[in-house]
Amino acid sequence: MRDVLPTLVERWRNGETVGLTTVVATYGSAPRQPGAASARLADGGVLGSVSGGCVEGAVYELAGDVVESGTAQTERYGIADDDAFAVGLTCGGTIDVFCEPVSRETWPDLDEIGAAVDARRPVAVATVTSSDQPDVPVGAHLTIAPERARGSLGEPELDRVVVQDARGLLDLGETSILRYGPQGLRTGDGIAVFVNSMAPSPRLIVFGAVDYAAALAHAGAALGYHVTVCDARPVFATPARFPAAHEVVVDWPHRYLRAEMAAGRIDSRTAICVLTHDPKFDVPALQAAFESPEGVYIGAMGSRRTHDDRMRRLREEGATDAALARLHSPIGLDLGGRTPAETAVSIMAEIIAVRRGGTGVTLTNLTDHIHPGISRIQPDPTRVGG
């Protein structure tokens, strides 16, 4: 939903009704994960994707029907269906999508969600996708932030329980369907609530205002990272040189990084890339990076010789073996790249592999499942949309 949210809010403010389709569950080798969304606009345009192209035509028609009828509905597309090839989902997976009409009437607090995402504040949206309770309507929304909640799913006790559960998912950055019985009983399953967690984008902090940093900023931004370029030299650290960066900061890297950690703006999804090749910048920056939370990616550019010299200097400054084991140096995967742009791809490829648990092996030579960690649960053929 994050990808289509800016336009969705704009059209909402203009009084339009948009058909919003969201992936709420996947089974097998599905092309996109829960939370992926597409929007059919009032002028017939379309934004986003729920399947990477496989079933977009069918979903587009579904969105038109939902806008016309004003009734939200859930549909399943998958290889197990008789018409799977007709809609084009040939990847072998199955997806459940929830399609709803979005307008000021159906979603009065949509602008609050947009404002939270713009301000990089965590927010989750809970939507009823099916219900056997008359007081809990399909399509009801509840907007949940760490400090407050707005809206209602139709029943106060259900609201209370969903807020608790959604905040737990939001803390983890996870998106999922939750099931409840009457009065929010967690042992029931007659009510399905899709919780779409929209935590702030992961951060990519690049130290060193060099040409490789410009290419890395472009690659990181394209992958959804909030990119900061930091360098102590004001003549080099300028927004004009790094147009893809969200922030260009003039400061000593170690001082900036420690200030960001003290402010709570560094978490386990952050990637820190040191590209300066200068010990007076590199070593203090890496010492500060070693103080970051577990899970933070820490990489440093340089040749083998530069790496060996850097490791020696870090040990002399008291870096432990455990701290040095966190360092990815020389940075990046072996792709054979030469240009700054190719090097940026190499670096981002390693960040993705580390974050997602990938091997870096070509898929041709991979004998395991292409999508590691996906659900092996087979879809229930008796389930119907509702």
From TrEMBL:
Segments forming domain XdhC Rossmann: 204-351
Limits of the XdhC- CoxI domain: 12-78, 117-181
InterPro entries: MoCofactor_Util/Proc (IPR052698), XdhC_CoxI (IPR003777), XdhC_Rossmann_dom (IPR027051)
One of the Pfam families matching this protein, by short name: XdhC_CoxI
Protein name, entry field: XdhC family protein
Organism of provenance: Gordonia aquimaris
Phylogenetic lineage: Bacteria, Bacillati, Actinomycetota, Actinomycetes, Mycobacteriales
